[in-house]
Design brief:
mainly beta; 7-stranded antiparallel sheet; signal; Htaa protein
């Protein structure tokens, strides 16, 4: 029998090479990389969400930025935060992580149990236009860019994860000399990578924002904490994010990684909502 452990949400800064190696070696579902002293966000919700302003940490939790409710009606529960759809969500505005500079790659990981998958329900999102979401009955992951004045979605699709079952989801967005590479892993299994020559266009004012299991408006990027419980909802995925089920407690995380060789991301006005 495994000892009980506490759900955690984590956002960290690290070297790209180390983080990529950790992801590649992690393989098994439920074994995200371990927390680092440089984590920008590492919380297990032992603390308290105060209104819509700030999460108050407790113990060894780390928060280098501001984690807060979006609508103010999100309910903190023992397993994380309960969302009921609509505009509910959690948002993290990092104090040092800024995707708009173009010098940062990032990793986001979470555990969740979805009970519904409304159209455009977003599981992971960053910078306004990097996403993993439910769309047209599929799991769509990729990014949107506007390098030439025309919006282009670069993405791949997979089968939507089973409802009412816990899943581990990981996203790694990074630059290579040839352009962008985005790796997504579901329950420890790598999905086909997304590659493109143009970078994701960072929406104005959203360079420090990333999220998971939030509302799906393309111009909004609510951010998540990893213990996320969403129940029935119309525009947000419903479920709960948890820690791994491996024998040694691991931490779901949202991570950012520094890549000093990365070309700059393009800053632009938010993309208009899809009709």
């Amino acid at each position: 029998m495994r000892p009980p452990h506490t759900p955690r949400l984590n956002l960290r800064t690290a070297l790209v090479g180390l983080l990529a190696s950790a992801l590649a070696a992690g393989g098994a579902a439920g074994e995200p990389a371990q927390a680092s002293p440089t984590d920008a966000l590492d919380v297990s919700f032992g603390g308290s969400l105060v209104g819509t302003t700030q999460y108050t940490t407790q113990g060894d939790e780390a928060q280098r930025g501001t984690l807060h409710r979006v609508s103010g009606t999100e309910q903190q529960v023992p397993t994380g935060v309960s969302l009921t759809g609509g505009t509910q969500g959690l948002r993290f505005d990092a104090s040092s992580l800024d995707l708009e500079s173009g010098n940062q790659s990032f990793v986001m990981e979470t555990r969740y149990t979805a009970t519904a998958t409304p159209e455009m329900a977003t599981y992971l999102s960053a910078g306004g236009n990097v996403f993993v979401r439910a769309q047209n009955g599929r799991l769509r992951y990729g990014y949107s860019s506007n390098a030439t004045g025309v919006w282009v979605d670069t993405f791949k699709e997979a089968t939507l994860p089973e409802l009412n079952v816990e899943h581990a989801l990981s996203l790694h967005y990074r630059w290579a000399e040839s352009g962008v590479m985005m790796d997504v892993s579901l329950d420890g299994e790598a999905l086909p990578p997304v590659t493109g020559a143009s970078p994701a266009t960072v929406s104005t004012g959203l360079g420090k924002r990333s999220g998971s299991a939030m509302r799906s408006t393309p111009t909004e990027v609510p951010v998540v904490s990893s213990p996320l419980s969403t129940r029935s909802g119309s525009t947000a995925p419903t479920g709960s994010a948890r820690t791994s089920s491996c024998s040694r407690p691991r931490s779901p995380r949202i991570s950012s990684t520094l890549d000093s060789t990365a070309p700059p991301l393009t800053a632009a006005t938010p993309r208009p909502p899809r009709r």
